[in-house]
Amino acid sequence: MPIVAGGLYFALAIFCAVHVVRTRQNLYWLLILFGFPLLGSLVYFFAVYFPNSRLRRQAMKTVAAAAKAIDPQREVREARLLFEETPTAQNQMRLAAALLEVGQPEDAVQCYEACLKGPFAHDPEIRYGLARAYVECQRHGDALRQLEPLKADHPDYRPEPVSLLLARSLAGSSRAADARREYESAIARFNTWEAKAEYAIWAYAVGDLRTAEGLRGELEKIAARWNPMTRELNEASERRLRAARELAERATQAA
C-alpha cells in the first residue's frame, strides 16, 4: 500500500508539473512539487490549476444553476433593490434583464422603455434588450422598430443574435419571405448551430419539412461532436427544436 500511495502522489506531482510547463508558470513550482509531492501537488492544484480550469467554471455554473432553481427571483430582488438605491440607467437595465430572464417580459418592456429616454435613446444594448422583451410579448412589430434601425446603425453589434431575433420578428409579423431571407443570410454569414436550429424551428412551424429535416441532419452531425458543457449550453434550443418537430409531425398526421 505505501508503494501504491507513493506512486499516486508522484503521478499527481507529474500531472501538475506538466501543467506548470504547458502554462508557463514559475519554475519554482517544480521544486515544490517534487520536493513535497503530496503537499506541493495539493497546494498547486487549489492555488493554480483549479481556479483556471473547466472544473471550476463547471462548479461555479452548477452552483449558480442550483441557486437559481432554489430562488429564481433572487436576481430580480437584488437588481430592484440596487435600482431603488441608485436609479441609474445601468441598474435599470440589469433589472430589465433579470425580469426577462424569469419570464416577466411585460415588466421588462417597461424597464427597457424607460431606459431609452434621454441620453440612452439610441443605446444598442437597451434597444436589443427591448426587442427581446417585445418578441417574448409577441409584439413583433414593435421589435422590428428596434431591430431594423439597430442593425443599420450598429452593424457590428451582436450581429448573429440581432439577425436571428430580426428573423423571428419578421416571422411573427407574417413576413415569411423576409424571415426566410434573414435566416438564410444568418447561416451564410455565421454557419453556427444556433442559426441552423432557429431556421429549422421556423421551417417546422410553417410546414417546410424538407428544409427543416435537411437542417436537422446537419444539426445532429454538429451535436455529435459536442462536449457535455456545450450540450448544456444549447439545451434550451434543443428543447425548442424537438417541440417544433413534434408539433409538425402531429400536424402532418392529422392532415
UniProtKB/TrEMBL annotation:
Protein name from the UniProt record: Tetratricopeptide repeat protein
Gene3D superfamilies recorded: Tetratricopeptide repeat domain (1.25.40.10)
InterPro entries: TPR-like_helical_dom_sf, UCP030959_TPR_rpt-cont
Organism per entry: Ramlibacter pallidus
Recorded superkingdom: Bacteria
Segments passing through the bilayer: 27-50
Pfam short name (any one): TPR_19
Keywords in alphabetical order: Membrane, Transmembrane, Transmembrane helix
